[in-house]
Amino acid sequence: MDQFDRLPPEFDAVKDNDETIYWTGQPKFVPFLAKGIPFLIIGLLWGAFDLFFLMNMMSIGGGQPFIWIFMLLHLFPFYGSILNMFRLALVHQNTFYAITSKRLMLRTGFFGIDFKAVDYDKIQNLEVNVGPLEKLFNVGTIRAFTGEYAHTKNGTRPLFNEFIAIDEPYEVFKKIKQVSLDIKTDWNYPNKLRPEENPGYNSKYTPRE
What are the b/e assignments for 142-178, b being 16+ CB within 10 Å? Predict the structure, then answer.
């Protein structure tokens, strides 16, 4: 058994019997949580505006019950943004990423556990981004585009599968590129990667270090 055969338990439920995991990682907590900061800022500004409005209403004797009901509903962006930060903290505990001999795998979830697989032949573009906050924590985000788009009333936007806030993003990026190229080449030209002493189709691929 080599180093790649030690199965991380996070992916035990979906790994194929003949599938090898080459790398696993989990996002750093603070940069991952930072995804919710834009919504949090909007929520806090919304809450400050509503508080100012409520104080003015109270000063002129406008404390009728329907005002309180309206404000409770109108404050949803405020407490929703705070609850979203708690949600992200719980999601982080369930979030793991993996590079395997067949695909990229993403594990996440809030109440339950969700898995997503991205086959190498579906990846059309791969990029690595390191934002200012991620740079402070020496992490980065890898985004894989598979040709999927989200359609909204404002048009369409590309959808990405992301390894968010992972350690050594450039090394992981190069590993994905290498494994993806080797595996897709092997699919298109069978046995090209097979060792001479065992040219059969079922021989095992091991990525270069």
Answer: bbbbbeeeeeeeeeeeeeebbbbbbeebeebbebbee
**pTM for the structure as a whole:** 0.78
- The reply to whether 81 and 101 lie within a common domain is no
Q: CA–CA separation, 46 vs 206, rounded Å?
A: 53
Confidence category of residue 12, pLDDT binned at 50, 70, 90: confident
Domain, as residue range, for 39:
35-88
The helix (run of H) or strand (run of E) holding residue 42 is: helix 37-59
What's the CA gap between 102 and 119, in Å, rounded?
Answer: 6
Yes or no: say if 129 and 143 are a contact pair by the CB < 8 Å rule.
Answer: yes
Of 79-83, 144-148, 175-179, 199-203, minimum mean pLDDT range: 199-203
| Polymer length of the chain | 209
Shared domain check, 179 and 118: yes
Closest CA to 126 of 91, 166, 169, 83: 169
Assess whether 24 and 39 both reside in one domain. Answer: no
